[in-house]
Amino acid sequence: MTSRYSEESNPFADPSVHEDAGHAVGESTLTVGRNASLTLGTDSLIVLDDGFTGREPSNCCGLIRNNAKTTKAIPFFNVLWAELLEFNIIIHYCQSVSKDVVRVACIEYLMDKSERRQATPWVARLLDRAYGQSQRNKRIKVLINPFGGQGSAQKWYTRDIEPIFAAARCRTDVERTQFRAHAVEIAQKLDTDAYDVIATCSGDGLPHEVFNGLGKKDDARRALSQIAVVQLPCGSGNAMSCNLNGTNSNSIAALCTVKGLRTPLDIVSITQGSTRTLSFLSQSVGIVAESDLGTEHLRWLGSARFTYGFLVRLLRKTIYPCDLAVKVEVETKSQIRDHYRVQTSSRMSTEERRGTPDTANSGQTSENDRLPVLKFGSIGDDLPADWNLVPYDKLGNFFAGNMAFMTPDANFFPAALPNDGCLDLFTIDGDISRTAAIQTLLAIEKGTFFDMPHVDYRKISGYRIIPKGQKDGYISIDGERIPFAPFQAEVHRGLGTVLSRSGHVYETKGFS
Fold it and tell me: With 0-12 CB in 10 A as exposed, 13-18 as middle and 19+ as buried, what is 43?
């Protein structure tokens, strides 16, 4: 996917050419040995070492390149841990070895006795800079889907992820899922107070199971508020990590988990028959659902299978007739732009973003800790009085999203926000021309999809959809297939919790 970071703000770039070590003196600088110093710069740890010029590039954990610079800058975001031992200081950090891979590296210096008094508070300041508002020493329950990544998830965890967690002094408890919906069972039985994070080495299916498992607990609201759910991308669909971390690289996502900020996430209740399911990502009927679920045999193509399926069905002018009722919150595209700007500039507290009292630390279970009551009712109830059921006899695509990216290069919902209490919904007629269909597909990657005149885009807080004219078809909830039958959706503002880089927005360009 395309990162929203420029070279100047890329946390994995070497910003030493932009830093001036001479500007940071006094308490910010720690002298280590005769010819080296460590300085807390504006956004990086600046390592000045005259000895670099006499070392091989492979020395010092690969810190030095062939150009033999005497200065190296390590972004604070990349610093995993620092500690002062009896005779030396050690700093572990993530170093970029390619565009999509980081590896644990370290610098280590002997310390004179005269330097140790200054070193203790200096290390504390370094860790403060490195972590900011992010929690240190996270307690992480790791769930590995052994079938994820065509069977490579365990290998990727051991090689790419585990060393980063260990270097950051995170406490991990690893478990492999054994069968479908096993993560639901694990999350439901999990001791809420024993962990800070549930991290899934998987695609988007395991986070879906985890949210639903937490939702089955007697203290569901408390569990969903207290435990952050994250994805370490190891599947064919890694939308969650693309949105929250800006990457589908498992090693970079591991670093983002270490440094991630707790972020309330809107969760959607889906009712169908007597079943209530939680959705964190998306719901689709029509082309998108069929492009996803109807191309399972093409999983070897990765995310490209979705593009292939989407194009084929667009060109066929397939329609999926239905009756649809929606609770619209923001109706026009200009209003949606304004809404997005207001929300992204807001600095509301976590409690305000949840829209509910924070019960995570109450220590007791009450009715308020269970899943919220459905204010719009369920699919089995009468339609809410202010909803109108409208026939969509030529519907080609119904897609409701809680996040922006659905694949690394497909930002379907540029106005999506983690906790504005809304789903972003677009509908497209199935009888548009083939030229318009191809232009629509290209516009998704170009970022111009939102403004296309035949794309009806709204922000909503609930809907009911009733398929008709077909005996069978595809309905996708977070990429999981459910029966082809009427269902209803309702948004619960900030009910869930994730970790993100920003703490309040997705890693997208948004609106210019």
Answer: middle
